[in-house]
């Protein structure tokens, strides 16, 4: 079945064609031969296949691989959690599974950066440019929601999408900060086990997905951006501990935003920095005449072209650090911070009441702590308190477990979907029409009398959807879904 493309006109057709031809020509110089150039031009003219990445943090993702295979989706070679559909899969964002955080709608190419980063449970990791959170949610899943994941995003207007994705995907191990990337390096000296710099870029590699890139792209602007990227890469490298892993990625295919930026780092830090090979990913090499302008080790980075894997363009490089670095204007040293704060008795009492009502034991990782933040009871990485007290562009941390209202702790939506399967407290099982009604924010008339009145978990098969209130007749159920989850029409994967 052929895929249809939604036309998006940014300039008139002739101008669009001229700009696209000039971009393809520009990129074409980086390919080894004419057949590759033709293949890129063809793939850029073909719509992207729909793709998603499963989120193993959420119980609702279990069992989805067989559903996906039935729908003709196959895992991509470098990331077994990412599936690409052979036939269009419209409305993925309207499905129940999406709303429960079982997957993130994401193309195949950007998932490679986190695979190369290889995050491990319990580590300290920095995602320097985080919004809207595609890679943050992927990193947190690799860490199994443990350790410390600092997600930084300085653009305020991009925070709601980042926070929404973290909550939907059940991410609890983050500290969210809002600093310009280079400023973070004044505090974090040789500190993180791994750093991801998914740099702001021209996006010239994703013209296949969004032609709006054509309205802004020019070779001069790419040079301008590379100065910003060079500064961010230095800061990212400084924050990495010796022996750690830094991944530099962009969705640009240009030399300016990739090889030139990396060359700047290698020149500045000499033998302290080393580019490492990326195993298991073959990509067409740069023509020799182009490659000869850069240090030979840059051939170890990967440029993902759209045509071999039917995805968008991207660039990924893996770097390690051999010796500590110094930063010119240092404020403080985060390595001195860590002070463990024990949970206090009042917090423990609230935890106990929640556990009693919902009949479960809160599955907190040993490096997370339960704490009160305003009206919320939150679980957060132990180190979050230090970020807060030092006011390091702190925005928020961890996961909201419950909200206090009139002396009672109401379980949050995020805790319900993430932990609900382990709760043996009051619940009602819904059928599909009742689920659809719940997501329309209508009162559900239950086909079967609920076992109890008052607060319950609403379940659909093995999945916990949300919390709800059962009325006095045990027939009426009012869901407590957040407004952002309401859907007039709800689909299934
Ligand atoms: C390519 S996007 C990141 C995409 C994200 N990693 C993901 O996978 O969803 C780059 C981000 O860098 C942010 N940014 C721009 N300038 C920055 C700076 N000086 N320091 C840190 N982040 C910056 C942008 O606002 C943007 O959200």
Secondary structure layout:
Elements: H1 13-28, H2 34-44, E1 51-54, H3 64-70, E2 73-76, E3 79-85, H4 96-99, E4 103-105, H5 111-117, E5 124-127, H6 134-142, E6 148-152, H7 159-168, E7 174-177, H8 181-184, E8 192-198, H9 213-216, H10 219-239, E9 240-250, H11 259-269, E10 273-276, H12 288-291, E11 302-304, E12 314-321, H13 345-358, E13 368-373, E14 376-381, H14 384-389, E15 394-397, E16 399-405, E17 408-411, H15 413-419, E18 427-429, H16 432-439, E19 444-445, E20 454-460, E21 463-470, E22 476-479
Bound molecules: S-adenosylmethionine.
S-adenosylmethionine (SAM) binds next to helix 6.
Could you write a compact summary of the structure shown?
With 493 residues, this protein is an alpha+beta fold.
What does this structure look like?
The chain has 493 residues and is of the alpha+beta class. Among the domains are: 339-391 and 398-412, no CATH class; 426-485, Roll (Archaeosine Trna-guanine Transglycosylase, Chain: A, domain 4). It contains 16 helices and 22 strands. The protein has helices spanning 13-28, 34-44, 64-70, 96-99, 111-117, 134-142, 159-168, 181-184, 213-216, 219-239, 259-269, 288-291, 345-358, 384-389, 413-419, 432-439, and strands at residues 51-54, 73-76, 79-85, 103-105, 124-127, 148-152, 174-177, 192-198, 240-250, 273-276, 302-304, 314-321, 368-373, 376-381, 394-397, 399-405, 408-411, 427-429, 444-445, 454-460, 463-470, 476-479. Strands 5, 6, 7, 8, 9, 10, 11, 12 and 15 form a 9-stranded mixed β-sheet that branches. Strands 18-20-21-22-19 form a 5-stranded mixed β-sheet. The longest helix has 21 residues, at 219-239. S-adenosylmethionine is lined by residues 110, 128-135, 152-155, 158, 180-181, 198, 200, 232.
